[in-house]
Design a protein that fits this description.
With 402 residues, the chain is α+β, with helices and mostly antiparallel strands. It is built from 18 helices and twelve strands.
Length: 402
């Protein structure tokens, strides 16, 4: 992307075999036009259809227009500020327990350990499960599903392969997960005092469509799996990158530790934002044009995908001086811009779990650096490695804890 941007500028077209043209944009004004344009002209659901075999047809990621607005409205309450605060104790307890089990004095890859930690947070806060056999079974099935879904060959086959292969994947990878999820949904529907619970599943069971209908079991299942994908792998990867950056900048690590012990979190929040700027988990977001539209001064035809490039936008020197340098204080000096800092997308399609993810990252980083020393095994930065649609630390964020 950088070579194309250097040659063609802020807007260029990428053509992939068998796919509509993708028009990359990286100027803030063009990004704003995409995020604030009429949603009926800019469909994200169609672009995200690659996720259909896993998240299901009712996922907010795959819907557009009125259906998307309605489903997004139903998902809003669990991720408002007051509900986020109610998850703090659970997130902290999970982080302390997981980090306490990590080995000391020997090199370890933090990325898979962060995956285990963020999965446990999802199981407790989203699914509302506590210790027991049901939690253990669901954890095992989800891990099996996530392992299969993150395999590049499997991902490609389920995305563009024949229908019978997609059906086989659904049966093999999701059959066990779906049985357990539907059983838990049924059990929770019959539970007493549902209104006293704060987990996302219980809140969705009490949600009502505009016509008064409750969400169906299938709708709830699809949104739970969507939240799992949106709040597990991406957050784990962002946490791994944050540690990878901090251990190679001991002055920032020391500043973070000092702030943690003082009971503050402003610098930690800046570390989170700078990590997501410099090492975004996703490199682009896409919108499919349903009609001709002018973006960035260029009239684009219907059928193309216009894609704000998170990667290129976040590395613009005119927005971020010394853009390739990890410098968290830039977000203490100036607030993140709506159309210049977009790791969670933007507009009506901005990721609903963004605040949840940033909140969780603050708690996990605070717990880790308050309880142990963390050092790199080498001074060389870890390269980014592509894993399906995400970019992960090339050596797994390998560190030594003390």
């Amino acid at each position: 992307m950088e070579r194309c941007a250097a040659r063609y500028g802020d807007m260029f077209t990428v053509r992939l075999a068998g796919e509509p043209p993708v028009v990359m944009v990286s100027h803030p004004q063009a990004v704003k036009e995409v995020f604030t344009g009429p949603p009926e002209l800019l469909h994200a659901g169609e672009v995200n259809r690659i996720l259909l075999p896993v998240v299901g047809a009712n996922s907010v990621l795959l819907l557009d227009d009125d259906a998307h607005r309605e489903q997004r409205r139903l998902l809003m309450p669990p991720f408002r500020g007051n509900h986020l605060a109610s998850y703090a104790d659970t997130m902290t307890a999970v982080a302390q327990a997981e980090i306490g089990r990590w080995p000391r004095g020997t090199p370890i890859r933090l990325h898979p350990r962060m995956q285990a930690l963020t999965l446990e947070v999802i199981l407790r806060t989203v699914f509302g499960l506590s210790e027991g056999a049901h939690l253990d079974r669901l954890r095992a099935e989800l891990l099996r599903m996530l392992t299969m879904a993150s395999s590049s060959p499997v991902f490609v086959l389920t995305a563009v392969g024949p229908r019978y292969l997609r059906a086989a994947f659904t049966r093999t990878a999701l059959g066990g997960v779906d049985r357990l999820l539907y059983a838990e949904i049924d059990r929770r529907r019959r539970a007493e005092h549902l209104d006293e619970r704060a987990d996302v599943l219980s809140i969705l069971l009490q949600a009502r469509h505009e016509d008064g209908r409750p969400m169906s079991d299938v709708e709830i299942r699809d949104e739970l799996v969507t939240l799992l994908l949106a709040g597990h792998e991406t957050t784990a990867t962002a946490l791994a990158w944050a540690v990878e950056r901090l251990v190679r900048h001991p002055d920032y690590q020391a500043r973070l530790i000092e702030e943690i012990h003082a009971g503050r979190h402003e610098f930690c929040d800046a570390v989170v934002k700078e990590t997501l700027r410099l090492r975004p988990v996703l490199s682009v977001v896409g919108r499919g044009l349903t009609a001709p539209m002018q973006i960035g001064g260029v009239r684009l035809p219907a059928g193309v995908t216009v894609a704000p490039s998170i990667y290129l936008l976040h590395r613009r020197a005119d927005i971020y001086p010394d853009a390739r340098r990890f410098r968290p204080e830039r977000f203490l000096e100036q607030r993140a811009g709506t159309y210049t800092w977009i790791p969670f997308g933007g507009g009506v399609r901005r990721c609903r779990v963004a605040a949840f993810a940033e909140y969780e990252m603050r708690i996990v980083l605070g717990t880790l650096f308050a309880s142990t020393t963390v050092r790199p095994t080498t001074g060389r930065p870890e390269p980014a490695r592509r894993r399906t649609i995400t970019h992960v630390p090339g050596r797994g964020a390998t560190v030594v804890l003390g």
